[in-house]
Amino acid sequence: MATPLLPPRVVAPLGLELPAASSLAQALRADRVPDARRPDAARARRVLVVDDDPSTRALLGALVRQHGAEPVTAESARAARRFVDADGANAYDAVLTDQQMPEESGLELMAWIQRADPTLAVVVVTASPERETVAASLRGGAAGLIDKPIVPAEVWRALDAAVDRTRHDRAHRSTTRVMREVGRLQRLVLRSGAQVDPRLTVRSYPCHQAGGDFITSVPLETGGLLLVVADVAGHDVASAYTAAYFQGLMRGMQESGRPIVDVMRRFNRVLLEEWSGEESRLGALEVTTSVAVCAIALDVSGEFAQVTNAGAPAPCHVNSRGEIRQLERGRSHPLGWFEDSLPESTDHELSSGSALLAWTDGLEDLADRLGVPSEAVATALLVEGDAAQAVLAGGLRDDVLLAHLALGQPGSRSWGDPPVMRRWLPILAERYNGASQDAVDLAQARWEAAIRCVAPGVASARLADILTAVREGMLNALKHGCEGAADREADLQMSLLAADRVIRVRIEDPGPGHDFDVGRHAEEAGDELVDLHRGLELIHLLSTTVRVERQGARLRLDFRY
Amino acid sequence: MTASFPSAPASPTTAYAGASATITLPGDLTSSTVGDARVALTAGCERLEAPGSTLRLLQIDLRRAQMVDSVGLNLLVGTIKRVRAIGGRTELLVRATNVERILMFTRLHQIAQVVRDA
Predict the structure, then answer these.
(1) Statement: the pTM of the whole predicted model exceeds 0.80
(2) Taking burial as the number of CB atoms within 10 A of a residue's CB, which of A27, A86, A240, A410 is the most buried?
(3) Cα–chain-centroid distance for residue A256?
(4) pLDDT tier at A4 (50, 70, 90 boundaries)?
(5) CB atoms within 10 A of CB B117
(6) Among the CATH numbers 3.30.530.20, 3.30.565.10, 3.40.50.2000, 1.10.490.10, which is that of A450-560?
(7) How far apart are CA A158 and CA A476, in angstroms?
(8) Is the CB of residue A461 less than 8 Å away from at least one CB of chain B?
């Protein structure tokens, strides 16, 4: 039977097999030497022994051989360098070098080796353990120091420590190279995924070399689009593998016509039943076992979405009037947590000229630390520039991944701007109960932080106008609309239209409204105006435009800044 | 929002010089801070109203305020009316342009003198 031709494969750390031609395999090959010289447990340890004195050199060589390692002896630093250049530093597991040698000392040889391969551990042998020699050895990165006269047990102890250190450092270097390449490939995939649909804007801020956060958009056969935002626990090769596996499973099942909820339930079983426990078929691969996923399936018109959420932050919808709606978070947990916690899909009507936003946990963590709403952070990152820089200066502790999907025609007249600038973006969407009037200062500080987050360039005076008007509106809503009752709530939303530099505020309470006509009372002097209405007058004075609905129980205030 | 004055006092302070009393507010004049301001302004008005008082001018120093809301405005209006009732005058010292704008928009400048300190 003919042997089938298969592409040559490379076995990566953690048992992954990769096509040899892949860039990832090449990153691994950078650490490779011919098998006979590989510093692994399959061959004898090889130690380079350097000493100008023949008898000491022979003694050390014998001790190395007695300890089960293969000695390669050199009579000088120059000879040692020739060996390393010829065989490669990877051919050696440790170096034992005399310090006092003519022409070039052991410390000088060690410095050369550190430059050539910092993972190769060097032990310095010295007849006079002067303080300066010891200090210089340690500063130079020596793995150990042996005093003459030579004691075999000390040599063996130092040798073992040096070989262990070499192996540890080389394993770390190999993993680091793999991680860098995995991260580079992930970013390539992320960019190419985002380019599939021009309506999609992705912002990615990794703070690890590789990880499991990903965004993917898949055109559906019906003409719609499936957007998936996911966060795999962990930031290592295993989480990157898990992310890749999930995406492959998703695409495969999607092409077979299976809905995303089935994909997520199937993967939940994979994580819980197939990948958990020491009996895993994947052997040494330590798989992360949880994935937070939010999948949004849009119909061809873009006016209907089905959201399936498993432990991810709730996606946000902002319509063409700047009204914000959280597309409710499902009750399920991340995949891989519980067998009986299965994601369910919920249906939502959208509107033309609106936008959908979805992000991973890293953004919410950043928002918590900055003390601003997640929506404001998302908007700051989308508009980029000073706003994004200020947010990122807060420091990332987790990867941040954010997607913005523009639906239908934009509302702004600034057609030349990018889609994110021409649509309403969320700043804040909060609810306050009627009994929270005393906490208005705390709330005001939060509003200020949110506005500064998305529009750091807003002038202080204009910011003060906005905050004064919002404060008036909210106090009015809580005191009159909610009648100060703890079981009645008023809504406050803020959104940004970056292209037009407009902040829109929407305040709504459950009350019946009022019959005060600001326009009719405009000419009344300050001291004649009834105290009750001074707040409403301020709102009209400070806002660029005011829209009054439901007899004042719903206000829409625009502020151009 | 709080003013950026160094070492701003925590409570309103009152100073008397000749025929004027000056009440300096430590920061914003809003529903949250109006309580202390009301006490100081009431005391100032009572000094003006006292029999034999030579005080005729009440200066309200709002230079540390970045924000004045409707509750704060109501207090100012009430104070101005009270001073006017005894034949006195009120001056409002301001620094923030938005505070000055609010006082002008709400026509308080028609019943008190608004002085902007640049």
Answers:
(1) no
(2) A240
(3) 31
(4) very low
(5) 10
(6) 3.30.565.10
(7) 78
(8) yes
Of B101, B106, B109, the CB nearest to A534: B106
| Distance (Å) from the alpha carbon of A460 to chain B's nearest alpha carbon | 9
Task: Note whether A285 and A279 are within 8 A (CB).
Answer: no
A526 touches chain B (CB under 8 A): yes
Across the beta sheet with B89-94, what order do the strands follow?
B13-17, B20-24, B57-62, B89-94, B113-116
Give yes or no for B57 touching A (CB within 8 A). Answer: no
Asked if B113 reaches chain A (Cβ–Cβ under 8 Å), the answer is no
* CATH class in words for A35-173: alpha beta
Closest C-alpha to A287, from A309, A267, A260: A267
- Per-residue confidence at A220, pLDDT binned at 50, 70, 90? confident
Counting Cα atoms < 13 Å in the Cβ hemisphere of B76 gives: 35
What lies within 8 Å, CB to CB, of A88 at 6+ separation is A33, A37
Cβ atoms A490, A481 nearer than 8 A = yes
Domain A196-420 class in CATH = alpha beta
Domain spans in chain A, listed from the N-terminal domain onward: 35-173, 196-420, 450-560
Q: pLDDT tens digits, residue range A272-292?
A: 877 765 444 444 444 447 889
Q: Looking at the partner chain, which of A440, A460, A537 has a beta carbon nearest the beta carbon of B106?
A: A537
Using the Cβ of B17 and the Cβ atoms of chain A, whether some distance falls under 8 Å is answered with no
Domains of chain B: 14-116 (3.30.750.24)
C-alpha span between A556 and A222 (Å, rounded): 38
CA pair distance B80, B76, nearest whole angstrom: 6
Q: What does DSSP assign to residue A501?
A: T
Nearest to A93 by CA among A158, A11, A146: A158
d(CA A142, CA A529): 84
Contact A467 B67 (CB under 8 A): yes
Upper half-sphere CA count for residue B3 (Cβ side, 13 Å)? 25
Which pair of structure tokens corresponds to residue A225?
């689009």
- A&B contacts, CB < 8 Å: 80
Residue with tokens 């498993």: A310
CB of A11 closer than 8 Å to CB of A22: no
* B80–A527 CB contact, under 8 Å: yes
* CA–CA distance, A94 with A96 (Å, rounded to integer): 7
DSSP code, position B17: E
- Give the whole-angstrom CA distance, residue A331 versus residue A343: 7
Q: What is the ipTM of this complex?
A: 0.81
Q: What does DSSP say about strands A225-232 and A214-219: parallel, antiparallel, or unpaired?
A: antiparallel
Q: Check B106 against A538: CB less than 8 A apart.
A: yes
Question: Which of B59, B107, B56, B112 is CA-nearest to residue B81?
Answer: B112
The tens digit of pLDDT for each residue in A72-81 reads 999 999 999 9
